Amino acid sequence: MTTSPYHHGNLREALVGVAVDVVRERGPEALVLRELARRVGVSHNAAYRHFADREALVDAAAERALEALVATIRRRLARVEEQDPVRRARRRLMEIGVGYVEFALAEAGLFRLLFTAYPDPPDGAHGDGEGDDPYGMLNAALDELVEVGYLAARDRVGADVTCWSAVHGFAVLNVEGPLRGLSADERDAALTGLLLGIDRGLGAGGDWPSLADG
Amino acid sequence: MTTSPYHHGNLREALVGVAVDVVRERGPEALVLRELARRVGVSHNAAYRHFADREALVDAAAERALEALVATIRRRLARVEEQDPVRRARRRLMEIGVGYVEFALAEAGLFRLLFTAYPDPPDGAHGDGEGDDPYGMLNAALDELVEVGYLAARDRVGADVTCWSAVHGFAVLNVEGPLRGLSADERDAALTGLLLGIDRGLGAGGDWPSLADG
DNA sequence: ATGCGATGTTGACATTGGTAACTCCAAACG
DNA sequence: CGTTTGGAGTTACCAATGTCAACATCGCAT
């Protein structure tokens, strides 16, 4: 309501909003400052009162994208009802992977945005809180796997990078890489295979039954 | 020598050449038509006699990048001297991964170029020749693993996607993702862990000794 | 020699990100 | 209640880029 024709009210939010819209529709490369201004009904250059430059706006939008990704993963995690601690932990790890890929495919634009402007490294500092980022959630899940005895502590090191690499690679290849064009069925099968492979690899120390059957 | 001041001789090659140079130095986004022309000492627009548009030139450069990647992998494969068929096959698969990542890190610009303009899918059609692309080489290596009895035929399906995903993901995260900034040592360790994990996962059917020791 | 087609050139145009200088309004202060 | 001050938007402008159209130049076949 406080929208006098001049002072917009909260241009910043509005800009980030349309930015997200545009990215969802046409990808990060379609993120054009002047068009955003047009859409919001404001002159170009208005944006410069709120963002240092184009990149700053892109970063702001990327933050939104990250939240969306986290939300998707959380949603998937919440659906796990498994009771047995070991099976539960393993299932949770898989769901993180599924959620990650689900988001990448459903929101290809946002997913790509996320990695054209990523907030630098996650700073090896894992181990504190669960973190509100996917990497933190992954680490939490892996720690859980150690606690329940599925993953040998010795194999915990590097497991995060391995898991992330596999799932991220799968997502990238399917979204913008040579694997786009796979049918939904092929994709699902491949992803299941990938995740089961990880699950099997992590638990290779003991003699656990596959999550696939049962 | 045939360089009269007017007709350049073979502009096409020259353009692709400097394009590759620029990408190596400053990445794919620095690939600016007009600058290439300047570098070659020709007027802008000259390029349009040889390329339909910017994208066509990018594609041509990407082709070069692909060749370079393949060369790097071949070089690594050629160095494997292992005699025992099983160990040899396993080692070869690992070297493909190492080569892939090595290239991504050493030639970050070219690697990124490769995936900003990728020649569509590899067309599920694997099984013919080894192919001169990394995907073909990967498939050949996996087939070899089946032949020597390390990889169960049943697990062959999807193994290609799993391997590619893991290695590609690792490369991407390290080159342009949140894992850039890892020290060389950390990176090496993580990659070794990843590749051993794959090796272990593929051979999980039998009871093979790790490639790490011995 | 000559004329034609491939190869380059010049000139223009619309778009984009960005800077500078101006304007407008609202709230703080006397 | 008037004024001033500064945040928020605006217009004017610039250089760079991709691309199109029209023109120039050269070599080779006739």
Number of structurally distinct domains of chain A: 2
Sequence stretches where pLDDT stays below 50 over 5 or more residues of chain A: none
Given helix and strand content, the structural type of chain A is mainly alpha
General shape of chain A: elongated
Secondary structure: number of strands of chain A: 0
Task: Give structural notes.
Two copies of one chain form a homodimer. With 214 residues, chain A is an all-alpha fold. Chain A folds into two domains: 1-51, Arc Repressor Mutant, subunit A (Orthogonal Bundle); 67-205, Tetracycline Repressor, domain 2, CATH 1.10.357.10. The first copy, chain A, has nine helices and no strands. In chain A, helix 1 packs across helix 2 (33-40), helix 3 crosses helix 5 (108-114) and helix 8 runs antiparallel to helix 9 (184-202). The longest helix of chain A is centred in the N-terminal third of the chain and has 25 residues, at 54-78. Chain A is elongated. The interface between A and B is large, with 38 and 38 residues. Chain B binds a DNA duplex (30 and 30 nucleotides) through helix 2.
